[in-house]
Design goal:
The protein has 296 residues and is of the alpha+beta class. Helices cover 31% and strands 24% of the residues. About 4% of the residues have low confidence. It comes from Marinobacter pelagius.
């Protein structure tokens, strides 16, 4: 009987050890399961923070889809949102666009929306483009294309030189596709103005590139300016900020009167033929008197 009890004791001990190992294994498995969800939550939090961090490092601004005129109230659909990694000075953020507020100056297609776009400005400040200047020039009925010229039109500028003793008259195609900002002091042709004031104000205001302003000022002081209406340029962005007609090209070459009038050539030739060489002058002194003799 004693061997039976001995075997039963060994079996009982083994059973207790097996139960203990099972409990330990179950506890270890639960601990591992609990640790894995914690790691997943941490990864999700990191993945959620990453877009925010990326979003905070970028700036969103607006550019115009098409040209906008002063006084126009743009909608959100008038602009396209752009993303920049760097902050742009004076640019309005996409989320800070004013609602139902008219713009104070003209905005070209692709132009960036800045804070001064909605600030009050003078009539010229509202219409003049960056990189250009407003220049006033004298005007008469002929210069105004018979009174039909209006703000917003485009003209070519010609400079006619009267010539002098040693220079014959000529004309130069000076500038092309120059925008008219104002005619007789009026920026908006639909504005009600006093007719007498308009008649007294015989000026024409052109939008001239910064680089062309000295050229036009010199021509205005030394020549007679004339204007020819033309169609707007195909691309009105004018990135090069210049209206200069390049010298050496056909439009920019000066035209002389002798090239235009055959009579001018003939008269010049006739004057040249009629002027004959009188020969060498020799002075002869006879007492107190002197006379000149020409010797061939």
């Amino acid at each position: 009987m004693k061997p039976r009890y001995f075997v039963s004791s060994i079996t009982l001990v083994l059973a207790v050890v097996a139960v203990a190992l099972g409990i330990f294994g179950l506890y270890a498995a639960e601990s591992e399961v609990q640790s894995k969800p914690g790691e997943g939550v941490g990864q999700n939090q990191m993945s959620q923070r990453t877009p925010k961090e990326e979003k905070s490092s970028t700036f969103r601004y607006l550019v115009a889809k098409e040209p906008l005129a002063p006084g126009e109230v743009p909608s959100r659909d008038s602009f396209v949102e752009i993303v920049s990694e760097n902050e742009i000075s004076q640019a309005i953020k996409s989320s800070e666009l004013p609602n139902d507020k008219p713009i104070a100056r003209a905005l070209a297609s692709g132009g960036l929306v800045t804070s001064d776009l909605f600030e009050s400005a003078t009539a010229l400040q509202r219409v003049i483009t960056d990189g250009f200047r407003a220049m006033a020039l004298p005007m008469d009925e002929v210069d105004s294309i018979g009174g039909l010229l209006q703000p917003g039109d485009f003209v070519d500028v010609f400079a006619a030189f009267s010539g002098g003793r040693d220079a014959e008259p000529s004309v130069v195609h000076l500038l092309e596709s120059v925008k008219v900002l104002a005619v007789r002091g009026v920026v908006n042709p639909n504005t009600d103005t006093d007719e007498n004031d308009r008649r007294r104000n015989t000026t024409l205001v052109l939008e001239v590139a910064d680089a062309d302003a000295p050229r036009l000022a010199l021509a205005a002081s030394e020549a007679t300016l004339m204007y020819s209406a033309t169609k707007p340029p195909v691309a009105d962005d004018r990135e090069d900020h210049s209206n200069t007609v390049a010298l050496g090209t056909s439009p920019g070459n000066p035209l002389f009167l002798s090239e235009l009038s055959p009579f001018q050539n003939k008269s010049a030739t006739t004057r040249g033929q009629g002027r004959q060489n009188p020969g060498r002058e020799v002075k002869v002194f006879e007492g107190s008197n002197a006379r000149s003799v020409y010797v061939q």
